[in-house]
Amino acid sequence: MTIQSFISTFEHGADIGIRGIGLCLEEAFINGAKAMFSIMVEDIKDIRPVKEVRINTGSFDLTALFVAYLNALLAKADINGLIFSAFDATIDTKTFSIEGTARGEKPIDSMIGIEVKGATFCEAIVKRGENGLFIAQCVVDV
């Protein structure tokens, strides 16, 4: 299985739902991040992972951690003028915290897709599906 096969979006009125699926929590969170950043560019594969930033955030449960993680990524991307395409993450399920890196580059204008303003708690969930795969999803404000 490849990471690319586990990212998707789903319809949600004027906003867009994103979903990451993975064999572990970290992979689901990373794939959710890739799904979100794939909205922001024409083709996420064109974004080279040349500049790295650290990500560290926490929350009160796994679902809130997923939303916090996505919003932390958006903030770091905005501050640094980057679009991210590669991620590493370690989740502590006892403290509901995540540490990792995000890598990307400054996009050229022709690469730009839809602006994502923030991740929301609308339809947000982190769970293990019946098939054993982890799912992390929410709606992002565009």
Short characterization:
The protein has 142 residues and is α+β, with helices and mostly antiparallel strands. The protein is 24% helix and 39% strand. It has one domain (20-141): Archease, Possible Chaperone, Chain: A, domain 1, CATH 3.55.10.10.
Structure explained in plain terms:
The chain has 142 residues and is α+β, with helices and mostly antiparallel strands. The protein has one domain: Archease, Possible Chaperone, Chain: A, domain 1, CATH 3.55.10. It has helices at 25-39, 62-80, and strands at 7-12, 15-22, 51-58, 83-92, 97-105, 118-119, 125-128, 134-141. Strands 1, 2, 6, 7 and 8 form a five-stranded antiparallel beta sheet that branches. Strands 3-5-4 form a three-stranded antiparallel beta sheet, with helices on one face. Strand 7 and strand 8 (134-141) form a beta hairpin. Helix 1 (25-39) packs across helix 2. The longest helix is centred in the middle third of the chain and has 19 residues, at 62-80.
Essential attributes:
142 residues, alpha+beta, Archease, Possible Chaperone, Chain: A, domain 1, five-stranded antiparallel sheet, three-stranded antiparallel sheet, 8 strands
CATH topology category name? Archease, Possible Chaperone, Chain: A, domain 1
CATH class: Alpha Beta
Indicate the mean pLDDT.
93
Total strands: 8
Strand content: 35-45%
N- to C-terminal distance: 30 Å
CATH architecture field: 3-Layer(bab) Sandwich
Number of helices: 2
Shape: globular
Helicity, as a percent range? 10-25%
Q: Write down the domain tally.
A: 1
Series of secondary-structure elements, N-terminal to C-terminal: EEHEHEEEEE
Radius of gyration, rounded? 14 Å
Q: List unreliable stretches of 5+ residues.
A: none
The description of the largest β-sheet is: 5 strands, antiparallel
- Name the structural class: alpha+beta
Q: What is the CATH homologous superfamily assignment?
A: Archease domain
